[in-house]
Specification:
- With 194 residues, the chain is an alpha+beta fold.
- It folds into 2 domains: 2-66, no CATH class; 75-193, Immunoglobulin-like (Sandwich).
- The chain is built from 2 helices and 10 strands.
- The strands form 3 sheets. The protein has a 5-stranded mixed β-sheet, with no helix packed on it. Strands 3-5-8 form a 3-stranded antiparallel β-sheet, with no helix packed on it.
- It is globular and about 45 Å long.
């Protein structure tokens, strides 16, 4: 836990196995997202030097911090957005695979990380690729792909896959033309399991 005169900054961030969620955040004393990430990195490095976290934990925790949708982003800072997000097929049998497709627009070379997670089971996360591998049909065609396995014991019903993405400047990537007052809508699709 890090505390300041202006209130709690981050709670349970540095305990391996815990995931940083936005409801654990309060206004950062410096008020700037990049200052927050820089301070987070310094704290993580200090913990790593004390051998309290592993190298792979440091990357994971820093990425968790960057993914938080807490600070507003200026529309001028947005260089890339999600134009389309779809799933094929939209209705799937248990034990089958579905393909998730994302089409970004703008400066796609600014995409740092693009992943999806199942809203009803957020521990299930899927990285998207545009490298011709892992279900992606063609390298660098600006169609980012991820394969989602529908577990054979999945409960029938509707599940939602939400996109969480950041650019190389650590800004969130939202759906095209949805940013208002510094925040936008995340891309989302529904998958029905029969």
């Amino acid at each position: 836990m890090i505390a300041s005169e202006k209130g709690l900054v981050v709670l349970n961030t540095f305990i391996p196995g815990f995931i940083l969620h936005s409801h654990h955040l309060a206004p950062y004393p410096h008020g700037r997202y990049k200052d927050y990430l820089f301070d987070m990195m310094k704290s993580l490095l200090a913990l790593k030097m004390k051998r309290l976290i592993l190298d792979e934990d440091m990357d994971y925790l820093l990425m968790e911090a960057a993914e938080q949708n807490y600070w507003p982003v200026s529309e001028k800072e947005i260089t890339v957005s999600i134009k389309m997000f779809t799933v094929r097929p939209a209705e799937a049998e248990r034990g089958s695979m579905v393909k998730l497709l994302v089409v970004p627009e703008g400066k796609v070379e600014d995409i740092f990380m693009l992943k999806g997670y199942i809203r009803e089971a957020p521990h299930l996360q899927y990285l998207f690729h545009d490298d011709g591998k892992n279900g992606d049909e063609k390298q660098n065609d600006n169609v980012w792909t991820s394969l989602l396995e529908v577990f054979s014991d999945a409960t029938p019903g509707t599940y939602h896959v939400d996109i969480q993405a950041i650019d190389t400047d650590w800004n969130p990537i939202y759906r095209t033309a949805t940013v208002k007052d510094g925040f936008g809508e995340r891309a989302s699709v529904a998958v029905t399991v029969k």
